[in-house]
Amino acid sequence: MAPKAKSPPGTPLKTTPLSTPLPRKASADILSKSSLAVDDETLPSGNTTLKVRKLAYPLPTHISPTTINNTESLLRFIILALICGAAIGSRLFAVIRFESVIHEFDPWFNYRASKVLVNEGFYEFWNWFDPTAWYPLGRTVGTTLYPGLMVTAGLIWHFLRLINMPVDIRNVCVMLAPGFAGLTAWTTYLFTTEMSTPSAGLLAAAFIGIAPGYISRSVAGSYDNEAIAIFLLMGAFYSWIKAMKTGSALWGMVTALFYGWMVAAWGGYVFITNMIPLHAFVLILMGRFNNRLYTAYSSWYVIGTISSMQVPFVEFLPIRTSEHMAALGVFGLLQLIAFVEIVRRLVPGKQFQLLLRAFVVLVFVISFAALVVLTFSGWIAPFAGRFYSLWDTGYAKVHMPIIASVSEHQPTAWPSFFFDLEMLIFFFPAGVFWCFKELRDEQIFIIIYATLSAYFAGVMVRLMLVITPVVCVAAAIAFSKLLEAYIDPVIPESEEELEEATAHQPMSKAKAKKIAAAQQNKSEFNFTGILGGKGEKGVFGLDTRFAVVSVLSLFLFLFVYHCTWVTSSAYSSPSVVLASRNPDGSQNIIDDFREAYYWIRQNTEKDSVVMSWWDYGYQIAGMADRPTLVDNNTWNNTHIATVGKAMSSNEDAAYPILRKHDVDYVLVIFGGLLGYSGDDINKFLWMVRIAQGEWPDEVQEHNYFTQRGEYAVDERATPTMKNSLMYKMSYYRFHELFGGHPAQDRVRGQQIPSTGIQLDTLDEAFTSENWIVRIYKVKKEDPIGRELKAVSSFEGGKKLKKSASSSNAALASGAGGGRKSRPNM
Amino acid sequence: MWSALALTTLLPLAIAINVPQTYINTAIARTIELGGLTTQITTQYNIKPLDNSPGEYHLALAGENDFEPAWWEVSLGGKKLEGRLLDESPPTVAIQLGKTKKDEVITLSLTQVLAHTSTPLPAEIEQRDSQYLVWNTNSTYVDSWYPTDVERVKIRAPHPSILSYSSVPETYTRDNTITKSGGTLTLGPFHSLPPTLGTSQNKIAEQKPFSVHYETKDPVIGIRNLQRSAEVSHWGANLNIQDYIELVNEGPKLKGHFSRLAHQQSKFHASVPAQILTGFTLKLPPTAHSPYYYDYIGNVSTSHFRQGSTPATVQKNKKVRTSPRIVEGTLELKPRYPILGGWNYSFTVGYDIPLGDVLKTDNEKNRKVLAVPFLTGLKDVVVDNAELKVILPEGASDVQVYTPFAVDSIEHSIHKTYLDTTGRYAITLKKTQSTENHAQNVYVTYHYPLSAQLQKPLTIASLVGSLFLLGMGLRRVNYSIEKK
């Protein structure tokens, strides 16, 4: 670089060099002033060039800048609209393949709550006490859920009704996630545009639109909190960046509103609660405190906290739990710094400043100590259990088997990063690197976000969702930098040409300017090659451009292909309906769940209590409309353990539990006939573990394993296993189906013994077509006070022998006459 | 005649009508077809006036204290006769026979459908048991206001196994009272039967109840509620028909519990017990298309549709079908689960019909004439409460309804749906106890000018246009507090 710095005399060297490494605008200004500039503005990258430029390929000339600007914005709009369309379209596999149906488990509850909201009104929903959940405890739903999702769906529904478009609430719920995915693409575009260029924004929008990591939670029918949360997350982050850059209280308030909506919608709002303060804190540490940051943060924190406290489920948490303390602390710190800044401006004197600094540090330390003391004294709640499991991945398995039993709370497997993000995961570090390189305030945000979410995504599968947006943004930045460098038609001058040009054109202001800038940069760390971003370094031939651009395009095509394939094959199953293929290739729909649930709905008493494992609680409530003992809102561990105990004990021990909880029907999921692996026998060990957590003396996990430590359901199964209610209900009369042939369990690949299973306290009430759902009716006590075992052996024509059943059962059924019968049956 | 009508309505009902004995029935032959919930009765009356101007013939539709049959029709030589239903108990029609001479024999025929005359006995059976019904009637003899010379009643059961039947008094029989051959019982013949109805001045034959206990091989299906909505779209040239149906298996209730194993075994041996309903078929109009079938929790995937065809459609695409007949569309529905005795199943079925097939324009009066089927008939099924809601396009006015049979109520209302501004004209017809025979067209005529047709596109276009204008205006306003 040194020889180039030789500047001819008379060049205005004292022009202040540009502090930011984005010389586009300034150089363009200079060029437009000089008569030499021709059509530099047409180039999106706008690299500084001279008049005599060599272009790798011809560009059209004589197009007015206005036309170009208008075309650009029109194209941007059209592209964005198409991206939104693609984002919505790629989420509709389930609707097209099956139908407009609510998926999985939690969405059924959200759907049910939405129906309460639209049918019975907002206040009924707010005060909703659901006596049918967690029978007989009930659940105060209004204060134990995040209402944002339902309220959003309800507002859309009411709006459509207002313009006389009576759309079924189910369709609103089903289409909510794809619709908001389109909006997410739009906010991601805005966010990335703030970080980099609009072209990077468009790429980021396209990435987030179809990235499987986000689609996995937002296909049509996946009516869950995450469906709108990512839009709100990106909206909040965008408006935060905007507020921080402009110092506008209006944008701060918009951030707060997005934040408030997010708090109402998803428990993951804590991520924003910590992300924004962390960003502000890092900026302070970097010495970048200014009034814009102060205004933005203060307006966000005050309005955001107040609006978050309006949600009944959150209420005073923002000032009483550790997760929210960072935001409060940074708020206080900002006030102090602002105060100090004002004082410093008014009072000169170095010692006084030192004093003030000491004061700031002292206050900070004292308030932190106060926080710790308050936490230990119990006034501020320590971190919640789920939060700990983020730091110690083994924590949940030991202390909270319920949380650990959920598959989405498991640590992420490495392949799933590639599965969910494909090539983006490789471009992601490059994008973060670019942020480091420029390191403006907003890019620090990306860096913090990337670091935090990369950690979280590694800890919990579920949090892949949080990393996806930042991966898309960072990858889009890297990608667009690459594309910009290689699509740019300008061929840099070789060194000899450059010197020649300097000699011939001593008066070129632009050139002088550039050289001056180069000189200035000399002292800093400089990248060579295209990373240096200097005009004279670049790509020479057309072949290089072509090769790189075509490889990048190939990446993009493969990405689209991969995303579509993943979405179609992995993330679009409603799991309520299963699909298989007939031998002739036609689709066969296995609809056992709805068959059984609809049977319950239509043919049992309205107040029959159904006991099942908690996974199916929401579905039973939503589709069968019957009271359940436990459901997916796993707030009461003891209640779940009770169900686990009933399922894992023998009939004598289980029957009193069933009767005490007024259970009329017991529902089990059995996949042995069809090979449906998500059935209750496979979940059984978790029931045993959770029950063991409460009753370590009565239920022991090792009793369910064979001597050799195997989990067996065939001949080798232990007596405890064979006598457990779950085993009996799953395999009751199963072997008869095979008409003398060995009964094969297709999930576990084991042979079920053909000795008949006898159920004394339960009657088989319904079994679905493929035996996936089996429903049993709990017998009432014998009217003449016999034990049910004796009754069934009497009816079976066997000799009455003195049964040696446990005294427990004798107490329960023997004293049948004296027991209080159920009041309303 | 008007005065007579006024008189009968004014008089208290306690006074039974006095039917002048101007006719005699020379012969009555009645055939009773037993089924599940319905009973089909056809009766031939050979009547002879005793007078040159005998007046109206009073035809009793049921016995004392009985209700009017769910459906009935009187015809003379294959032609349907209009009768005047008297507001009396027992239900009676007065029929004008026109000019009749003395001793001229006229043959009237009466078709009746009775609903809910059979009940399951035993009321509870196990899954594999066969089902038996008992049919009860209060009238062993044919109810009549006039004396009868010869009368014969045949009762046909759907299946030869008849467990028992009651006896017939020997008062009017000569040789045999009841003959049973296979599934058919023949009562009588009865000779010189006095009238079974009338005032006590005459001699009256005493009616005895009669019952048959028989087996049936078909599930006994009832529909508690049927709500049909028919929505007309002139722009889409479409009539959408949607039925919400609450179906019940009215056969003997299931004793104990349902065993899937036993059900699958019986399916394997192709011997599914008679009481279990596993599927049924709906006959749709020939041009019906795009059917759907769902219930409260979503689509039911187990249905098959075979589209019908008319000669016109066959001509269009000859490859599909060659027969020039009208072929009805068939929609085979399979409920989510087999419906056993006492089980319920409610669902929704819908389909579209091209509007051209059901809507005609009366150019003289400038009116549209729309034909809407009241319900889709299912054999041997009684619909307890049927409701038809016809939703006309927005702007339809001057609406008139013509029903082929009497309905319980007709309501006019406004129905607002997709992007309506003034709302659509809706007519709701309600009827209890409908049968397969009520699957007839209801005609609705209305006035529908072009302006009404253009109402919606113009409203929406102007609304969207004004929104854009508003946006353009707002975009050009500076909101900044500081002046730039």
Notes on the protein architecture:
- The complex is a heterodimer of chains A (825) and B (484).
- Chain A is mainly α and 825 residues long.
- Among the domains of chain A are: 237-382, no CATH class; 594-814, Rossmann fold (3-Layer(aba) Sandwich).
- In chain A, the strands form five sheets. A four-stranded mixed beta sheet of chain A has the order 7-8-12-11, with helices on both faces.
- In chain A, a hairpin with a 5-residue loop joins strand 11 (762-767) and strand 12.
- In chain A, helix 10 (225-246) runs antiparallel to helix 11, helix 13 packs antiparallel against helix 15 and helix 23 (464-487) packs antiparallel against helix 26.
- Chain A is globular and about 100 Å long.
- Chain B has 484 residues and is mainly beta.
- Chain B folds into two domains: 2-215, tricorn interacting facor f3 domain (Immunoglobulin-like, Sandwich), CATH 2.60.40.1730; 221-272 and 340-457, Immunoglobulin-like, CATH 2.60.40.
- Helix content of chain B is 11%, strand content 44%.
- Chain B contains five helices and 32 strands.
- Chain B has helices spanning 2-10, 260-268, 311-316, 355-358, 450-475, and strands at 23-34, 38-49, 57-60, 71-76, 79-81, 83-85, 92-95, 106-115, 118-120, 124-125, 132-137, 148-156, 162-165, 178-181, 184-193, 210-215, 221-233, 238-249, 253-254, 280-284, 289-295, 298-299, 303-306, 329-333, 344-354, 359-362, 367-373, 382-394, 397-402, 409-415, 424-434, 441-447.
- In chain B, the strands form seven sheets. An eight-stranded mixed beta sheet of chain B has the order 5-4-8-2-1-12-15-14, with no helix packed on it.
- The longest helix of chain B is centred in the C-terminal third of the chain and has 26 residues, at 450-475.
- Chain B starts with a helix and ends in a 9-residue tail after the last helix.
- Residues 1-15 of chain B have low confidence and may be disordered.
- The A-B interface holds A 98-101, 163-166, 576-577, 589, 591, 594-599, 601-603, 622-623, 733, 736-737, 763-769, 771, 777 and B 256-261, 264, 294-302, 336-337, 342-346, 416-421.
- Chain B: Keywords: Endoplasmic reticulum, Membrane, Signal, Transferase, Transmembrane, Transmembrane helix.
- Chain B: InterPro entries: Ribophorin_I (IPR007676).
- Chain B: Residues 1-16 form the signal peptide.
- Chain B: This is Dolichyl-diphosphooligosaccharide--protein glycosyltransferase subunit 1.
- Chain B: One of its GO terms (biological process) is protein N-linked glycosylation via asparagine.
